Amino acid sequence: MLPKYKRILLKLSGEALMGDKSFGFDNAIIAQYAQDIKSIVELGVQVAIVIGGGNIYRGMNEAETGIERAHGDYMGMLATVINGMALQAGLEKIGVYTRLQSAIKMEQIAEPYIRRRAIRHVEKGRVVIFGAGTGNPYFTTDTAGSLRAIEINADVILKGTRVDGIYTADPEKDKTAKKFETITFQECISQNLRVMDMTAFTLCMENSLPIIVFDMNKPGNLLKVVTGIKVGTLVKV
């Protein structure tokens, strides 16, 4: 089985790590993700990962919490590092070499983000997990995923969600929603389909970086995507 993509950026949501819980991690989900990632590493695919932090902390409405936006965003960045450490532990438990890089310096637990070092790691077959977003407030982890994918010259962004692609409406709320097999960036914008936040989406569009949105919670889907089997929705120029 030959992979279609040589180097990928896998974007995972923090909420997905909760499974059926209301907070934190579901160890079964982390174990499943780790096995799925291992299956593509064994094919020779070079893997980098960005995880959100919504299972631990989500930047709330400033008026409700009293926490200013920038301060809250830094709290969210720290949550992504905790998630990165959890996934790193899950991967290393099954023999996958990983490196955690953080956009905020914390030498005891993560390397600082250095682009050339990250590229060298993936070239050597190590899975690189990027933590702390971009290191800047007001930018989401979607934007961090797009930025890192472009920086390390990834072939594609794989956005692993709970939904198996992009639909005309939210399939969890609207049973008549229809799924797209492929869609262009411009069509997503004109139909106001929220694939990622606009900063992240525009970065991908301007750099002709395709995005595949797929259901990461179904075991084996990641392997199907990287070997070219039609799973989820492809967004292209």
Characterization of this structure:
With 237 residues, this protein is of the alpha/beta class. It has a single domain (7-236), classed as 3-Layer(aba) Sandwich (Carbamate kinase), CATH 3.40.1160. Helix content is 36%, strand content 18%. The chain has eight helices and nine strands. It has helices at residues 27-41, 62-65, 69-93, 115-123, 141-151, 185-190, 198-206, 221-226, and strands at 7-12, 46-51, 98-102, 111-112, 127-131, 156-161, 182-184, 211-215, 233-236. A nine-stranded mixed beta sheet has the order 4-3-5-2-1-6-8-9-7, sandwiched between helices. Strand 1 (7-12), helix 1 and strand 2 (46-51) form a beta-alpha-beta unit. Helix 1 (27-41) crosses helix 3 (69-93) and helix 5 runs parallel beside helix 7 (198-206). The longest helix is centred in the middle third of the chain and has 25 residues, at 69-93. The model has no long low-confidence stretch (mean pLDDT 95).
